[in-house]
């Protein structure tokens, strides 16, 4: 079983659709990290050692057709920060001391799942639909950013026209 510790994720996206899963990465043990949109706001969810947290980040709507940068850092799953467009928008700190990292199988599903797997089923209802919009970049930990998605296996991966406002 391949296990991959996740400490940081960065994504640059644009969407005009108010709901949808931007990315999902999980392990067979049930740990996961996920980001999406709900009612035009960012929605972050993670599970670690039986603790499940789901938050909708308050603030300005991001389903506006404008490009947004999201950086999620979690040196451990008890200390999480979310930076949106260079502004700190969310922090989570828990008093439990545990140095275990959040682990996944190393696969990041972008926008949805292969083989027509329903997003609502795979995410246990956390997200109801696939992402509709554009991703220009994703990076995790210290890996180089992915900007050319044609090299990666997936469905509905094509170039993305910029939105006209």
From TrEMBL:
InterPro entries: ConA-like_dom_sf (IPR013320), Laminin_G (IPR001791), Neurexin-related_CASP (IPR050372)
Annotated Pfam families: Laminin_G_2
Cross-referenced SMART domains: LamG
Domain Laminin G: 1-160
Cellular component terms per the entry's GO annotation: membrane
Name assigned to this protein: Protein eyes shut
């Amino acid at each position: 079983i391949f296990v991959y510790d996740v400490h940081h994720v960065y994504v640059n996206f644009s969407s005009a659709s108010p709901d949808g899963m931007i990315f999902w990465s999980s392990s067979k043990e049930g740990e996961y990290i996920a980001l999406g949109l709900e009612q035009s706001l960012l929605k972050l969810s993670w599970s670690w050692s039986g603790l499940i947290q789901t938050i909708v980040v308050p603030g300005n709507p991001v389903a506006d057709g404008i490009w947004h940068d999201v950086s999620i850092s979690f040196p451990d799953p008890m200390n999480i920060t979310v930076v949106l467009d260079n502004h700190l928008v969310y922090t989570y700190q828990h008093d439990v001391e545990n140095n275990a990292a959040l682990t996944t199988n190393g696969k990041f599903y972008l926008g949805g799942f292969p083989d027509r797997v329903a997003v609502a089923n795979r995410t246990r209802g956390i997200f109801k639909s696939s992402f509709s919009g554009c991703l220009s970049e994703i990076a995790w930990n210290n890996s180089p950013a992915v900007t050319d998605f044609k090299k990666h296996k997936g469905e509905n991966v094509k170039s993305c026209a910029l939105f006209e406002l």
